[in-house]
Specification:
Elements (H helix, E strand, L loop, with lengths): L6 H22 L9 H15 L12 E4 L4 E9 L3 E4 L5 E7 L5 E8 L1 H7 L7 E4 H10 L15 E2 L2
Parallel strand pairs: 2-4, 5-7
Antiparallel strand pairs: 1-2, 3-6, 4-5
């Protein structure tokens, strides 16, 4: 990886982003100055690239990365949250769900086929459906352990087994 940084430095940078957001919040007396949306999503994709060796090149709608074992290619939707739930619009082929804390801690909430999560949330009426931390844990427990994308470099502070 050209220009790659060490995992510990990556996590320090995440913490620094949150520190800056807090400083801006206090300086301008705004209560919702938090890194979310595209920035948090990008941090999640970078973390997933480090951990799983993903590539940012999926052409499948609603997927943002791919993974290959040399024999087959999987399309993956990486979702990241700071608040304990992720949003998805349609069933992903594969899903990696991460949670990032203000201290730069990275937690793996789900790693496996998207169908297990989708089955838990497809009944929701809105187009964008939400999976909570508990739903993701339950889905992870239902997924075949052999269906997980293998970890190349573990930077997680906590991980489902």
């Amino acid at each position: 990886m050209k220009g790659a940084m060490e995992a510990a430095e990556f996590k320090r940078k995440i913490s620094a982003i949150y520190d800056i957001a807090h400083e801006l919040s206090e300086a301008f007396q705004i209560s919702n100055c938090t890194p979310d949306g595209h920035l948090l999503g990008a941090i999640g994709k970078i973390a997933a690239k480090i951990v799983f060796g993903l590539t940012f090149n999926s052409t499948l709608q609603e997927h943002n990365c791919t993974w290959s074992d040399g024999k087959s290619i999987l399309n993956i939707q990486v979702r990241c949250t700071a608040r304990g739930s992720i949003a998805i619009r349609k069933e992903p082929q594969y899903l990696i769900a991460l949670e990032i804390s203000e201290a730069g801690k990275i937690y793996l909430l789900y790693n496996g086929p998207g169908k297990h999560v989708w089955e838990k949330i497809q009944h929701q009426k809105q187009n964008q459906k939400y999976a909570t931390r508990n739903q993701l844990r339950d889905a992870q427990n239902e997924a075949d352990p052999n269906s997980k994308i293998p970890i190349k470099q573990n930077i997680f502070d906590s991980r489902l087994s």
